[in-house]
Design brief:
The complex is a heterodimer.
Chain A (H helix, E strand, L loop, with lengths): L3 E6 L7 H14 L4 E5 L7 H4 L10 H5 L5 H4 L1 E2 L6 E4 L12 H14 L2 E5 L6 H7 L4 E6 L3 H15 L7 E9 L1 H5 L6 H8 L3 E6 L2 H9 L10 H13 L9 H4 L3 H9 L5
Parallel strand pairs in A: 1-5, 1-6, 2-4, 2-5, 6-7, 7-8
Antiparallel strand pairs in A: 3-4
Helix pairs in contact in A: 1-11
Chain B lengths: L1 E3 L10 H18 L5 H16 E3 L5 E7 L2 E7 L2 E4 L2
Antiparallel strand pairs in B: 1-3, 2-5, 3-4
The chains are: A alpha/beta, B alpha+beta.
The complex binds adenosine-5'-triphosphate and magnesium ion.
Magnesium ion binds next to helix 1 of chain A.
């Protein structure tokens, strides 16, 4: 088996990398494929909490790399989905504990075992980012429609462009979109951000309080039916699997009628 | 193709289009590693050079930055009134 290694990255902190990693992991696993989620935010372990697995962590990624345990011993099985696993980060080490070579080797081993390997990365553009992307062939860039987050996402896109040899494709997830604020022209629209960054869109996730509730429960929102943000993540997983899923209510989330007329005469790249 | 219009910013613009314009201009500077004051000094020099050859209409002289994918282009427009030689 040779799985796909997909890194989730953002530049700016707190825009939703870990939330996206957990939900994309769950959504992919729900479609039946096997998935490993890797927490590369060494020293700031979070993904175990979002998955509700913090009490089951025995070994971690650094233990594997430093050969204190076998890879299989460090993998924590999800509570609900038998085909979903987490490789937790070390909480008491720092970003230098794993280098790019070691990460490449680890991802190589993981993709021999799983269909999908989802890597959650730390904020920033320094070594932590470089190591997190080291073993990946694909990337998901996540941002919110705020100026500082978009600026940092652009840095990441620049860095991914420079790694064209290794990263064959990257797409954008726009998180915490507030359709109401776009409608009143108080915030950049999905279309605006895509135009500015010149990237392909993978998904749009609305701002949703339920995401915070789900974090507190340790059950990613993608596992719950009838919730828009959960559906957004499930759609992202289907698009990753190559399905052509229409963007949900993008028109509503998007520009006013005038924007649509302009688009009709001058279609946007997306 | 997008035209970045930092020259004539209208007062009644929405927050959204302000953010979009600022964002585009900021990213063009980031991507080119261009210091904030470089474009205005370039404009001054360009005007000085063209003015050696022509009388130009300063009122309608325009500089625009256009974005093509992730690349930028500087578009200058000098309305020429008469030759100086
Ligand atoms: N769509 C959303 N709606 C509401 N809240 C959200 C949404 N996405 C993320 N959040 C909240 O934003 C906060 C930051 O999310 P998260 O931890 O996933 O970001 P991160 O990019 O991993 O942060 P860091 O850079 O610190 O690792 C969390 O409290 C999370 O619940
Ligand atoms: Mg995180």
């Amino acid at each position: 088996m040779s799985g796909r290694v997909i890194v989730i990255t953002s530049g700016k902190g707190g825009v939703g990398k870990t939330t996206a990693s957990a939900n994309i992991g769950v959504s992919l696993a729900q479609t039946g494929v096997s998935v490993a989620m890797v927490d590369m935010d060494i020293g700031l372990r979070n993904l175990d909490i979002l998955m509700g697995l913090e009490n089951r962590v025995v070994y971690n990624l650094v233990d594997v790399v430093e050969e204190r345990c076998k890879l299989r011993q460090a993998l924590v099985k999800d509570k609900r989905l038998p085909n979903l696993c987490l490789l937790p980060a070390a909480q008491t080490r720092d970003k230098s504990a794993v280098n790019a070579e070691q990460m490449k080797k680890l991802c190589g081993e993981l993709k021999a075992l799983f269909d999908y390997v989802i890597v959650d990365s730390p904020a920033g553009i320094e070594s932590g980012f470089q190591n997190a992307v080291a073993g990946a062939e694909e990337a998901i860039v996540i941002t919110t429609p705020e100026m500082s987050a978009v600026r940092d996402a652009d840095r990441i896109v620049g860095l991914l462009e420079a790694r064209k040899e290794e990263i064959s494709q990257y797409r954008l997830v726009l998180n915490r979109v507030r359709p109401g604020m776009i409608r009143t022209n108080d915030m950049m629209s999905v279309e605006d951000v895509l135009e500015i960054l010149s990237v392909k869109l993978l998904g749009v996730v609305p701002e949703d309080e339920q995401i915070i509730v789900s974090t507190n429960k340790g059950e990613p929102i993608a596992g719950t039916d009838n919730i828009r943000s959960g559906l957004a993540f499930r759609n992202i997983a289907r698009r990753l699997r190559g399905e052509d899923v229409p963007f949900m209510d993008l028109d509503e989330l998007n520009a006013n009628w005038f924007g649509k007329v302009v688009k009709f005469f001058a279609p946007a790249r997306v | 193709m997008q035209v970045v219009n930092w020259f004539f910013r209208r007062k009644d613009e929405s927050v959204r289009s302000q953010a979009k314009d600022r964002m585009r201009l900021m990213l063009i500077h980031d991507r080119l590693e261009l210091p904030a004051d470089r474009l205005s000094s370039l404009e001054e020099e360009l005007i000085a050079v063209v003015s050696r050859y022509f009388d130009i209409d300063r009122q309608t002289t325009r500089f625009d930055l256009q974005q093509y994918e992730r690349r930028a282009a500087l578009i200058a427009n000098f309305p020429l009134l008469r030759s100086k030689c």
